[in-house]
Structures are given as structure tokens and as C-alpha cells.
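Handout, section B. The chain below has 114 residues.
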Amino acid sequence: MYRGNIVNPGVNMDKVTRLALEKGAVLFSKSSCCMCYAVTILFQELTVTPIIHEINQDLEGGEIDKALIRLGCNAPVLAIFIGGRLVCSMNEVMSLHLSGELISLLKPYQTVLN
């Protein structure tokens, strides 16, 4: 389910907030997550290049996990943000894609191909 809530910078989640707002599409993942690869390929086919933050490579990965859970992700990985808005999981991304909503969410972040 698309959460639609913008990450709240007032909450003690500065790193998640900064990363989520840094670029149009941000994926919080683990190196071994095959779903991250699938979402990355889907986004690239829609001409969007997401930032991928592998939390298992981050010294603060455990805190990022906790922050993502506090934001509403049932499972912290794979967590997906589009325009600072939490989309959450692969299932939600696919639901948005099948309904046609994903393209409109990603439109501001698409790269124009020549």
C-alpha cells in the first residue's frame, strides 16, 4: 500500500531522511536482496536510476533497519522511497506499476533519452 507520507525530518531518523530526499528514487536494501535488483531493473526500464543504499554495508545499518520499521515498513528491506515518500515493498511497487500509478510517481525523476 502506498503510504504517501513524506519522511518527517523531526523524528530521529536523519540519515534515512537525508537519503530518502537525496534523489527521486531510493532503495534501502541488503547486498543479497534479489528484489532490489528486480526493482532497479524495472525503474531503469522506466528511465529512472535509483540510489541504492545497502544497509548491511553501513555501520549504522541496524539503526536504519529500526528507522524504516518506525516509518511503517513491515520488513525493513526492501524499503523504497519515491520523491521522499515511502512506498515500502516490491509488492507495493508492482501494484502501483500494474495500476499505472508508478509511472506518474516516477515521471519527475525520469531521464530524457535522446
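Note. Residues 1-12 have pLDDT under 50 and may be disordered. Compare this with the example in section A.
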